TrEMBL record:
Its cofactor is Mg(2+). The lineage of its organism: Bacteria, Pseudomonadati, Thermodesulfobacteriota, Desulfovibrionia, Desulfovibrionales. This is Inositol-1-monophosphatase. Pfam families: Inositol_P. Coiled coil: none annotated. It comes from Desulfomicrobium baculatum (strain DSM 4028 / VKM B-1378 / X). GO terms for molecular function: inositol monophosphate 1-phosphatase activity; metal ion binding. One of its GO terms (biological process) is inositol metabolic process. PROSITE patterns: IMP_1 (PS00629), IMP_2 (PS00630). Belongs to the inositol monophosphatase superfamily.
Amino acid sequence: MDKQLVNGFLACVRQAGGVVRTQWNDAKEITFKGRIDLVTQTDLAVEKLLLAGLPALLPGSTVLAEESHESLDPGALTWIVDPVDGTTNYAHGLPIVAVSVALWKDGQVALGAVYVPMLEELFWAVRGQGAFLNGTRIGVSTEGNMQNSLIATGFPYSFYTEVDQICLRLRRVLLASQGIRRLGSAAVDLAYTACGRFEGYYETGLKPWDTAAGWLLVEEAGGTVSGLDGDYGLGGHMIVATNGSIHNELLALLRLEGAADCAC
């Protein structure tokens, strides 16, 4: 991929993260899109910056962004944007907040970045060229034992429609692994899986902007990304991302057919 495009892209993402840093201590203007689904003035400001900056980098490209999207289906050349992934964290002053941007080209993610501005961590990847954290190449964990594996997960905004399945999966994974973490940002969970901090991650109910960039990060870092029963596609009900070594075992834990019911 053209180096000038990549450098311009990373500069644009850093600039977007700068908006988060600048507004971090400002009073939060919160609007509720759903009972627990928030949007703040910072989401809107970051998205406005990216809506202007990204198409200028690549003439003919479009933008599919969380706060302004009209469709969940990207075009042939589309930037997929989550301006603030982890808005609830942001509203509560928790620094696990990311700007997540990916370029969807000809049916796959070609370029992606997850920037965690309050921690100054910029994860990025180019298809076929590897994944990086602040310029240093990263790779997934080499751990192959589930008992030694740290697993991340999250809960969908519509958790109440599948709370029993969520609880059962939590119990099964918790008993089999070293532990579970719930950070509140799918983009960060995927980035942390890519760099080996987590051995695996799973979640249901995510949108294209939640997973597009992180999906590429994990694969370019040597990991595996799938759905529960086959390939993962943007907007799929469940994403499962791992270092590859524990992938099949994690999938087996997440499949509930024949599993005994259990209350949380």
